[in-house]
Amino acid sequence: MNKIIYYIQFLASFIIAQSISMWGQFYTLKYPNISMFKAFLMAIPFAWLDWFFMTIAISLGHKYNLVSETQDTFLLIITQFILVLIINHFFLKQVLSKSDIIAFFVILLAFAISFSSLVSKLMGIPIPKKVKKNEKEEVEHEHKGDPDDELAKRLRLD
Question: Structure pTM?
Fold first, then answer.
């Protein structure tokens, strides 16, 4: 399948997951006198749905090497930031400030730099290649103690 289709599936499930998550987090704010238990009962279905769709998104991202873990995090921040601004504006009726807009573009710039490896390319720093899941990665650890001690066992990846 074309990688663009995987990106569309990844982004769709990622945005759906975060939309559900953010709505679940903001949903109870209109009820200032609600108990913690009732708020939990109202929010937990949103968390479950978020988990379901986010699992699909992360699985697609890792299976097809779409984004790195850092880019996952940037995308999470960007998506949540956009959704918070939308929910604040339309649901909570709060005004959008210039600082919010500037912060958004700073976050977008950081994502663009990470995704394109711009700084590494400009400075001539080699860009590490993504390791496919089906290839076994061998990592050597320098440990100068007894090879059978507990720390050495934890450091081994085989």
Answer: 0.67
